[in-house]
Task: inverse folding
């Protein structure tokens, strides 16, 4: 089961409500994970290998101009390897759909509403989680982006941002997609193929990603497809 909270550490976590709560949660996660994540890169699912042959770079932020389902599939790589992930400011994030892509809900922290000081809330997550997905409510101030960048570098974490982000390591952009599996007015959408381009510091890469390869992708209806095209559903 995922942990869901607004801007506070969840109930039942030792140290909740004290100045040490973030550090204690960090220690708890490291103990459950068995080791501190100090790797130079974080794994991706095989379908993303053409874009990230060495994985997601630790200590970096990536801008995602893609449907939410692409972000879920990117979370699934590290999550399937036992890493903890966080999602902040994405109230439409569906845990069931994320699980279909391979995200381990037992190691997922959800913060649907980070509150007014969203940068501080995201910084707290970056302090304790190796991978964090966020949708900022507005463009970050340069000072906010710089502080988060420093925390990412210190902890070798990865920040996935739905939207543009200053000083990002790379920008992933969806340039096209198509669905398969739906018959003449009946059936389920079983495959979603997305054309992606990655601009990583002037080194462009492109790939056609079959999200059906990323795990047990849940079936979709026509309504789901319309919502996904608008970025409100996986």
Result:
């Amino acid at each position: 089961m995922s942990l869901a909270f607004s801007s506070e550490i969840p109930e039942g976590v030792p140290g909740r409500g004290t100045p040490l709560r973030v550090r204690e949660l960090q220690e708890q996660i490291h103990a459950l994970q068995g080791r501190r994540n100090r790797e130079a890169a974080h794994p991706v699912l095989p379908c993303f290998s053409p874009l990230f042959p060495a994985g997601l770079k630790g200590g970096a932020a990536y801008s995602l101009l893609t449907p939410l389902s692409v972000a879920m599939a990117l979370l699934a790589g590290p999550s399937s390897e036992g890493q903890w992930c966080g999602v902040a400011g994405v109230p439409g994030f569906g845990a069931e759909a994320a699980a279909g892509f391979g995200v381990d809900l037992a190691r997922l922290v959800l913060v649907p509403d980070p509150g007014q000081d969203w940068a501080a809330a995201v910084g707290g997550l970056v302090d304790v989680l190796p991978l964090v997905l966020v949708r900022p409510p507005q463009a970050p101030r340069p000072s906010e982006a710089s502080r988060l960048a420093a925390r990412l570098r210190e902890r070798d974490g990865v920040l996935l941002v739905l939207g543009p982000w200053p000083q990002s390591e790379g920008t992933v952009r969806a340039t096209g997609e198509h669905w398969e599996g739906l018959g003449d007015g009946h059936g389920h959408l079983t495959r979603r193929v997305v054309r992606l381009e990655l601009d990583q510091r002037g080194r462009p890469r492109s790939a056609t990603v079959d999200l059906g390869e990323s795990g047990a992708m849940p079936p979709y209806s026509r309504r789901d497809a319309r919502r996904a095209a608008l970025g409100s559903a996986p």
Remarks:
- The first helix runs from residue 21 to 33.
- Confidence is low (pLDDT under 50) at residues 5-19, 33-39, 215-234.
- The helical segments are 21-33, 68-80, 95-101, 118-128, 142-155, 222-229.
